[in-house]
């Protein structure tokens, strides 16, 4: 017998969100790890707010919502709030009851300065690393490093000449909604030009034959056992930024490792290799033999570990691929290097959560 197509809704519901999410749902182990990490950040959260006044939205819920945004490739926080309005799975993950009102998108704008000032993203990554270390998923001896381009939220037309000395007023940009600009025959350099919409971005190209774009450089330090990211940072796009960021991340591990550091041929310079050896780190850097003498000699390449590091080092591209496709980090949604670095670090931590969940499931 065919049933009736009725649209009458019930007046009351006695089913909790916990029962609506299957026990085998892949978000459940991620929610457990996120809650454990946020519990470790409780002292930082307490220092962010005054002891008196009207209660604010819990920062733990804001961070959970941002984790969902990265996991499900949601382009904006307004779309995230739309999903929270009717998506029961999202409400369960964030910690909202089915009757709780959804916040305005500007809540993230108001609270982002607090989260950035307290360095919550870096602390969150540290808490995730601690969980992976407790599960013996982390190698503290062998690491790899690499950098990638992060396109800034700025167009080529915003790259205008800097004001002359003594002139505080910047040159007026082309008028119109989408004016035609001819750059042919006009030299543009970072020391003479600057973006009017993203002053922190620099014009940079990764290699010969590739277009120059306004961008930042994102750097990741990866351990070699399971390909987990243990540190991340964002710098200005310069020719030496990759090596400088690598040394800075290695120095953060001084006293605890690493013993070896794998990198591609862009890191094969005498200064970088010498700096690593001074710090007691063996440089497993790919030899650059294109027209010049490599700084890596037989005392490094003769060991079998050098070839192993070269194969494992390529796994860092999986991190960059996930960040740019799933987390939508190919084109930045925020302006300012501090905001870009904060979101990049948080996205790296979310990648580790997914990776840890998969490793636990297979073992």
Describe the model:
The chain has helices spanning 17-20, 27-40, 42-48, 59-71, 77-86, 88-94, 106-117, 120-134, 241-251, 270-278, 298-301, 304-313, 316-325, 337-362, and strands spanning 142-151, 159-161, 193-195, 202-204, 213-223, 229-236, 260-263, 282-285. Helices cover 42% and strands 13% of the residues. With 363 residues, it is α/β, with parallel strands linked by helices. α8 packs parallel to α14. Strands 1, 4, 5, 6, 7 and 8 form a six-stranded mixed beta sheet that branches. The protein has a two-stranded antiparallel sheet with strand order 2-3. Among the domains are: 17-117, no CATH class; 139-152 and 215-332, Ribonuclease H-like superfamily/Ribonuclease H (Nucleotidyltransferase, domain 5), CATH 3.30.420.
Brief account:
The protein is 42% helix and 13% strand.
pLDDT below 50 for ≥5 consecutive residues: which ranges?
Answer: none
Determine the CATH superfamily of the domain at 139-152 and 215-332: Ribonuclease H-like superfamily/Ribonuclease H
Main sheet, how many strands, which sense, barrel? Answer: 6 strands, mixed
CATH class of the domain at 139-152 and 215-332: Alpha Beta
Average pLDDT metric: 87
